[in-house]
Amino acid sequence: MYIKQKKSWEISENEATCESLYLNRRKLLQAAGLAGAGLMIGGTPSFATPISGFPPIRNSEYTLDRALTSEQDATTYTNFYEFGSSKNIWRKAKKLSTDPWLVTIDGLVDYPIQIDASELVKKLGGMEERLYRHRCVEAWSMAVPWSGFSLSNLVKFASPKSDAKYIRMETFFDPDVAPGQKQSWYPWPYVEGLTLNEAKNELAFLAVGLYGKAMQNQNGAPIRLVVPWKYGFKSIKSITRFTFTNERPVSFWEELSPKEYGFWANVSPWVPHPRWPQDRERVLGGGYVKTQLYNGYEEEVSYLYKDKYTDDKRELFY
Ligand code: MTE
User: Which residue has the higher pLDDT, 310 or 153?
Assistant: First the structure.
């Protein structure tokens, strides 16, 4: 997906201090009963501990039609453009420090907060393991066991206001640690978005681990999205901010090249990428398989896209 295109530099909005976070502190602590939980608003948490609970129990509802990818392949062949456009970035990604890790939840929510990832995981509870297929827009795929919890738990925790329609997610911005972010033609920080209805779908997952262990940096530590019915670029890594909004977010790749990377980005064998076909995929570890609509999760997600079953199949992607 390598694209070199000049973009004007924009300072990330997450560098500004959010006044409402300060203003809502007392309200939040009282209402959510979070006082003393290592949570602070508008500052760093008073303490942070590593995310625990590995390995979680596997949820048997999520099964695979293929063999699991080897842990070696899934952790050494990764896309994380913050560390470069090669797949072999796992050594460079070690420089990222993920503990403590401040996560902001803001926008159209009752109680904007900042909370350490490990505390957030405790609040959301219910860590489980799920086996998911994962299909990259570059036409390779893998199948892996993620540890984490439903994104719908975070939506409930955030308590979005009734006019919130989307959830916008953002990755850290630190060019000293992530050399790819010195490449100013990319619109850093990495941003992704889902509709709130997509975020509430049970398949939408926030992963904090892989193969029963804490997530390694190159796979998006400490917390990343996994939406297995969409192309892998939607599954944003190392999230620092969840913003509830009524405006459709413009994702990183969509901003770079909207003709190649749509907002919806549902896996679809019928919609070729402008530079390659999408009807089959190379399975990491060996072999090729046919690509399935919604990456095989049609039964679970097609209700979300009823209005897109028109003659123009491109609507599932763009
Ligand atoms: N998230 C961030 N922040 N930066 C990235 O470059 N790459 C995306 C996605 N999330 C990316 C990201 C792409 S293109 C894919 S295919 C998946 O992460 C890859 O996830 P994996 O490397 O864990 O397999």
Answer: 153
Q: Is the pLDDT of residue 61 over 60?
A: yes
CB 296 less than 6 A from any atom of ligand 1: no
Closest of 295, 134, 105 to residue 220, by C-alpha: 134
Q: Which of 34-38, 102-106, 188-192, 268-272 bottoms out in mean pLDDT, i.e. has the lowest?
A: 34-38
The total domain count for the chain is: 1
Domain containing residue 71: 13-317
Residue with CA nearest ligand 1 atom 10: 236
Residue 56 lies in a domain: yes
DSSP letter at 3 equals: -
> Within a domain: residue 3?
no
**Closest atom of ligand 1 relative to the 220 alpha carbon:** 23
Q: Is position 19 within any domain? A: yes
Ligand 1, atom nearest to 87 Cα: 22
The residues, ordered by sequence, that sit 6+ positions from 27 with a Cβ below 8 Å of its Cβ are 111
Tokens of 260: 């190649």
CB count within 10 Å of CB 207 equals 27
**Whole-structure pTM value:** 0.89
Does residue 189 form part of some domain? yes
